[in-house]
Fold this sequence. Notes:
Helices cover about 60% and strands about 5% of the residues. Strands 1-2 form a two-stranded antiparallel sheet. The chain folds into two domains: about 1-40, no CATH class; about 40-150, no CATH class. The chain is mostly helical and about 150 residues long.
Amino acid sequence: MVGVDKKKLTDILKKKTTTTTSKTTKPAGTVSGTAGTVKKTASTVSTLEEFKKKHAGSDATKSTLEEFKAKHGQGALDKQKEILHSKTHQDLINAAYKAADTLKIAPWVLLRAAGWGHFTDDRGKRYDGPAIDEIKGLDDAQKKALKDVLEIK
């Protein structure tokens, strides 16, 4: 946004959200807006920290990556990187939204789990991160959904 102080805008929005939330009498987990009322599900409420604690560095994640390397070889990871590195952050945001829709989860849950929450800061930048199968924050279903959307084998 041209001519807008992002920090000031964020502070205003936080105050507005806090004020609105404190005055509401709706049940917890309910958000009202012009599009109607939306109930948050338990899967969309968990924080990134909770997710990382649950999944990061787990033996299952490590063994899955090792199994993938053993089955498909390093060449498959290099091919994933080649495809991903041709994409912009916006391309991956769009892919995450589509994948999240198929998984029936909130897109931000998937974006944060992948470590892509900052992609909105520079949407036009080319992706320079790891292959999808190397991202430890994603579970197998999330990796599959992203690869399907991006047409990565």
